[in-house]
Amino acid sequence: MKKFLSIFLLFLLLGCTEEWNFYIIDDNVKEYSLSELKNFETDVIYETVVGKEIRKVEWEGVASNTLGEGDIINYISEDLYLVSVPYNVDVILAYKKEGKNIPKEEGGPLKIAVDPNYGCRCNWLKYLRIVEFIDSRNSLSIYGEVTNILYFSPRDLNIFYSIEDIIENRYNRIGLNKILDKAICKSKAEKITFVTENDRKTFDLHEIKNIDPEIIYEDGFNIPSLKLENIIAIKIE
After folding, report:
1. What is the Cα–Cα distance from 76 to 188, expressed in whole angstroms?
2. What is the CATH number of the domain that holds 165?
3. 35 and 119 share a domain?
4. What whole-number distance in Å separates Cα of residue 118 and Cα of residue 132?
5. Alpha carbon distances (Å) from 97 to 44, 60, 116, 118
6. How far apart are CA 68 and CA 106, in angstroms?
7. Are residues 167 and 126 in the same domain?
8. 52-83 burial, b if ≥16 CB within 10 A, otherwise e?
9. Which of the chain's termini has less CB crowding within 10 Å, N or C?
């Protein structure tokens, strides 16, 4: 019994965690385990933490831009939170903090650590399940008076269902309000402009939210009820 307790305590001290699987989506979908990720070349990001004293915290993992190609990388968590980060920003899939496995309460066993010079720490997505490389030219961007600037690929319309649905790419439609909720419109926002390949149309944001039109991907992002086709961006003003 004492031997078992000793092994168990050692297990905890080493910060061992249960296996964690995640997906890389590029031209196809690949599933990896955390153990497999640790076989890739490692990189580090240093975070400056200000408290009673200023110190550098080391996060260790694998640089995400070594795992695929695209000008935007989308990161999706187990609880279906989405963060879009440009490909050229330094981001690592972090599994260690100061040389130890990242505990669950800090977003482990796998999270992203982002160049501290880019955006706010809200980009440090926890419980990472999906890394998706996308081409911004084939995506739907949501920007302007929002907290979370996003780029939706057609596959990302499944984010409102489940991780499995994203992987299988089962659905191609969702209510617009759910997309706006992901972007988090600021309280002062009053207008919404849909940018298409050939035009721009502006509406009252609150009226559009009351309607909650369905957005559908069929050879482009479309909102049939508003007679909008091939939408490439949504600007919140």
Report:
1. 27
2. 3.90.420.10
3. yes
4. 19
5. 10, 6, 15, 20
6. 26
7. no
8. eeeeeeebbbbbbbebbebebbbbbbbebbbb
9. N
Q: At which residue do the structure tokens 């086709």 appear?
A: 229
The boundaries of the domain holding residue 83 are 19-134
pLDDT digits (tens, 9 = 90+) for 133-177: 999 999 999 999 999 999 999 999 999 999 999 999 999 999 999
Model pLDDT, residue 8: 44
**What number of residues does the chain have?**
237
> What is the rounded average pLDDT for all residues in the chain?
92
List the structure tokens of 124: 């440090």
Closest alpha carbon to 76 in 149, 28, 23: 23
How far from 175 is each of 2, 131, 208, 213, CA to CA, in Å?
Answer: 57, 24, 11, 6
Banded pLDDT at 53 (limits 50, 70, 90): confident
Question: Do the beta carbons of residue 57 and residue 97 sit within 8 Å?
Answer: yes
Separation CA 182–CA 147 (nearest Å):
9
Tokens of 11: 């297990």
Kindly give the residue spans of alpha helices, DSSP state H, lying in the chain.
Answer: 2-13, 34-37, 163-168, 176-183, 205-211
pLDDT in tens, 77-116: 999 999 999 999 999 999 999 999 999 999 999 999 999 9
